[in-house]
UniProtKB/TrEMBL annotation, chains A, B:
Residue intervals of the HTH gntR-type domain: 12-80
Domain of life of the organism encoding this protein: Bacteria
Protein name: GntR family transcriptional regulator
InterPro entries: GntR_C, TF_FadR/GntR_C, Tscrpt_reg_HTH_GntR, WH-like_DNA-bd_sf, WH_DNA-bd_sf
Pfam family of the protein (one): GntR
Keyword terms of this UniProt record: DNA-binding, Transcription, Transcription regulation
PANTHER family assigned to the protein according to its UniProt record, in alphabetical order: TRANSCRIPTIONAL REGULATOR, GNTR FAMILY (PTHR43537), UXU OPERON TRANSCRIPTIONAL REGULATOR (PTHR43537:SF5)
PROSITE patterns: HTH_GNTR
CDD domains reported in the protein's UniProt record: WHTH_GntR (cd07377)
DNA sequence: GCTGAAACCAAAGCACGATTGGTTTCAGCC
DNA sequence: GGCTGAAACCAATCGTGCTTTGGTTTCAGC
C-alpha cells in the first residue's frame, strides 16, 4: 500500500494534468446545486484525454472522499447521501424538543462511554481540535456547528453502527426542526464558556480512557443544555 | 361522534352488505402474497354496488386497522409498511451481535424508566398479560415471540417517538440476523424461568411507577441475556 | 506500462401511458 | 336531507421502452 516512488505531485504527465483539472472543477468550479460533475465521457472530451485517464483521476478523488459516484446516476461532489436522513425527515414532524432531549440524554452518555474505551490517541487529538474550534468560534451560529461536529465525532469514534444510526437520527431531527431559534436564544456568552469547560471535562475523561467518567460528564453537559433550553422556552412563555 | 341509532350491525341495508362481503374477503378469502385486495372499481362491479359504497366500507376497515391504502398503488390487508424496517434492513449487514447488545443495554433501560413514569393502569395490565404469555409459551420459539412483544410494548408505552424508532431499528436488525439460531440455543428451561422472574421485577417496578428501579431491573435482565448469549457463543467455539 | 478508443454491461433516469386510490359533481331514490 | 350509483377528473404509482451514465473489458499504439 506504500507508494515507493518519490514523485507524488507528478505521477505521470497526463494523469496529473487530468487530476489537477478535475480537482479544480470540484474545488472552485461552480457546480449545479446538487453537486453533479460532468459525465466521464464529457470530461474526457473536454480535457482532450481518454476515459480511462479520467476514471483514474476520479478513482483517486473518490478515495480522498471528495466525490462519490453511482452507476447510472452520475458523479457528485461531497459525501454520499445517508438513508438515515430520509427516515429522520419523515418522523421529524411529530417529535418535540423534549423527546429529542430525552433521547440525547439516553444515548449520548453511552456513546461517550464507548468512545472512551475505543478512542485512539489520534482520535483524542481530533476531538480536542474540534473543542478548540467550538471555543474560538466568533458567533453563536458557528459555535453551534462546531459543537455539533464534536458530538458527532464522539458518536463516530464509539464504533457502534446501530448506535451511530440512532444518534444520526436524533441529530437530524434536532437540526431540521424549527426550534433551532429557541436553541439559538439559549446560547449566551456565559453558557458558552460553561459548555466549553464541560467539553474539556468530557474529552479529558475520554483521553484517560475512563468510560464511566466520560458518560457522567456527557450527562452533566446535556442536562445543563437541557436546563438552559427549558429556561429559555419558559422565558418566552 | 356518538351513534344515536341502535342498529349497529345493520347501518344501512346496502352499506352493511358490502362491508360484510369485503370483511370476508380480507379475513378468509386468500389474497395474493402481498396482501393486495381487488381494486375499488373491481370490487364495486363484483358486488354490484357503487364505488362510493365500497369506499365507505374500506374507510371503516381502514379505521379498524385491518387494511391500508395508497393512492396509485392499491389496497392491502394488514398494517402499512414501516420505513424504519427498510433502514434496518440496509444496515443489518454490518452489525454484529455485540453491537446490538450494546445498543439494547443503552436504550432499553431508559425506555423502561420512561415507561414507568408514563404507564397507565391499563398499560400495566397489558404488560402483565404479555409476561404471562411468555411464561406459558410451550416452546422456545413462541416464548421468544412473546418476549419480543413485551419489550416492544414497554418501548411503545414510553411514549417517545425518537426512542421508539431507535428501538425498532435495533429490534429489526436483531430479528433479521442469522444469529437467531445462537439466541435459540441460549434459551433453556433454566434461563426461561430466570427471565420470567426478571420480567416480573421490571413490571412490578413499572407498576410502582419507580422509573429508576425499572431501569435497573431492565439492565439486569439484559445483562443476564447478554451473558447467556456470550456463553453459548463461546461454547460453540 | 500507460494511453486512447471502442464496445458492452448494469444501474439509474426519463418520458409515456395505464392503473389505482382520492375527490367532486350530479341525478335518482327513499 | 341522506344515501346510492354513476361519471368525470385529480394525483400518486407502476410498467415499459429508451436514454444516460458509471463499471468493465478488449485492443491497438506509443
Amino acid at each position: 500500500m506504500i507508494q515507493d516512488r518519490p514523485k507524488d505531485t507528478q505521477e505521470t504527465p497526463e494523469a496529473d494534468r487530468v487530476l489537477q483539472a478535475i480537482r479544480q472543477i470540484v474545488s472552485e468550479g461552480r457546480l449545479p446545486s446538487d453537486g453533479r460533475l460532468p459525465t466521464e465521457r464529457h470530461l474526457a472530451a473536454e480535457l482532450g484525454a481518454g476515459r480511462a485517464s479520467v476514471r483514474r483521476a476520479l478513482d483517486r478523488l473518490e478515495a480522498e472522499g471528495l466525490i462519490w459516484r453511482r452507476q447510472g446516476k452520475g458523479t457528485f461532489a461531497g459525501q454520499p447521501p445517508d438513508p438515515t436522513e430520509e427516515l429522520a425527515a419523515q418522523i421529524a414532524s411529530d417529535v418535540d424538543p423534549l423527546s429529542a432531549m430525552e433521547a440525547r440524554l439516553c444515548i449520548e452518555p453511552a456513546l461517550a462511554d464507548l468512545c472512551a474505551r475505543r478512542a485512539t490517541g489520534e482520535d483524542v487529538v481530533r476531538l480536542r481540535k474540534l473543542a478548540e474550534r467550538t471555543h474560538d468560534a466568533d458567533d453563536s451560529d458557528s459555535a453551534e456547528l462546531w459543537d455539533g461536529a464534536l458530538h458527532r465525532a464522539i458518536a463516530r469514534i464509539a464504533g457502534n453502527r446501530l448506535m451511530l444510526t440512532a444518534f444520526t437520527l436524533i441529530d437530524e431531527v434536532r437540526m431540521g426542526e424549527d426550534w433551532q431559534e429557541k436553541r439559538h436564544r439559549a446560547r449566551t456568552p456565559q453558557t458558552r464558556a460553561f459548555y466549553d469547560a464541560q467539553h474539556q471535562k468530557i474529552i479529558d475523561a475520554i483521553d484517560a480512557r475512563d468510560g464511566a467518567a466520560a458518560a457522567r460528564a456527557m450527562r452533566e453537559h446535556l442536562e445543563t443544555l437541557f436546563d438552559n433550553l427549558r429556561k429559555s422556552m419558559e422565558r418566552r412563555t
